[in-house]
Design a protein that fits this description.
This protein is mainly alpha-helical. The protein is 72% helix and 0% strand. It is elongated, with a radius of gyration of 26 Å.
Length: 172
């Protein structure tokens, strides 16, 4: 029993040391990361790394233009910059390279879980052979229900009220 308490204490001490060192590392490299972003994260650099991106010269859109890009050229650029500048970005590039799809995935995780939940509500045992395209459309509608209701109420308010009145009065 006494030995288990020592291991727990030792584990807590190690966690504390990791936290202190992690905070120090973060504070050290976050300023350098901000400088790197100011210097390198711009439309010109994206176009240099990805020559086939939006050839019309227009402003790049994060969703339309950048979301689908392969990150390998960007990560090579970051790693090369880090090595050329005496490991100024610390462990950030290593962490990104070591955690496949993880660092960017956490932001969208709750949204993805909500989509899966909506799909599960629609795709029951009785409807297991539903076409995937139809399921995708139904989930999209379900996920955007509040937005569609708000648009319907604000933009088409007069039309909805006229239609209701026509239905009540029995005229078309």
């Amino acid at each position: 029993m006494h030995q288990e308490e020592e291991e727990t204490t030792t584990e807590a001490e190690l966690r504390n040391v990791d936290e202190v060192e992690g905070n120090f590392e973060f504070k050290k490299v976050v300023k350098r990361w901000e400088l790197y972003k100011k210097e390198k994260v711009n439309d010109g650099n994206w176009r240099r790394l990805y020559p086939d991106i939006r050839k019309d010269g227009g402003k790049l859109d994060i969703i339309v233009d950048l979301m689908k890009l392969d990150l390998k050229p960007l990560m090579k650029e970051i790693n090369d910059y880090n090595k050329a500048n005496k490991n100024c970005l610390g462990y950030l590039p290593l962490m990104v390279n070591s955690s496949k799809c993880q660092l960017g995935a956490l932001n969208a995780q709750s949204f993805a879980e909500r989509i899966i939940s909506a799909a599960n509500l629609i795709l029951t045992k009785d409807r297991s052979s539903t076409d995937m395209h139809l399921l995708d459309m139904m989930v999209t509608i379900r996920m955007n229900r509040r937005f569609m209701e708000q648009v319907r109420e604000s933009k088409y308010k007069d039309n909805v009220n006229k239609r209701r009145m026509m239905m009540i009065s029995g005229s078309k």
